[in-house]
Fold this sequence. Notes:
Layout: H1 2-57, H2 65-78, H3 103-106, H4 108-128, H5 133-154
Bound molecules: heme C.
Amino acid sequence: xxxxEIETRMETFMRIAxxxxxxxxxxMSAAGADIIxxxxxxxxxxxxxxxxxxxxxxxxxPFDADTVLAALERxxxxxxxxxxxxxxxxxxxxxxxxxxxxxxxxxxxAFVEIETTYSANIQAAVDAAPGDLDEFRAAFGPIxxxxxxxxxxxxxxx
Length: 158
Ligand code: HEC
């Protein structure tokens, strides 16, 4: 009798433990997928901002100091600096439809360094508040270069 009761209790305990473990795994992968989506949304916004600034830098759209500064400020808010790894935590190397390469984690120092340079260049551009096309181009060139430099090594080719 007592033996059977203990056995039932053990079974119940095991079931609860198993359920808890499964829930934990599910929660973790959901959080991982969320953070992948979040960092991709941050990157998408960079793309949107580039669609404003790129044509101006290329002379396809007229230079307007207010438009440029507003876009640079938006870019500044979007930049992650040395906290970029918060969006690339361990466990999000795969999953979702991430295009991050393993190098993000294998050489996170270099990855963080590019984002830090990128962010500093944007801050400098905001501080400079470009007054004409030449000033804007000088400030914008190094920023745009970091997009490609980072993607080359840290984002998979499609
Ligand atoms: C420090 C590195 C780094 C810098 C700087 C950087 N990116 Fe990215 N970008 C990435 C990585 C890594 C991914 C892939 C993220 C993923 O899929 O998890 C990515 C993805 C993207 C995507 C695809 C987003 C999607 O829809 O999934 C776009 C668009 C993008 N970046 C634009 C830009 C632009 C524009 C700039 C510069 C203004 C920029 N990025 C600067 C690392 C960087």
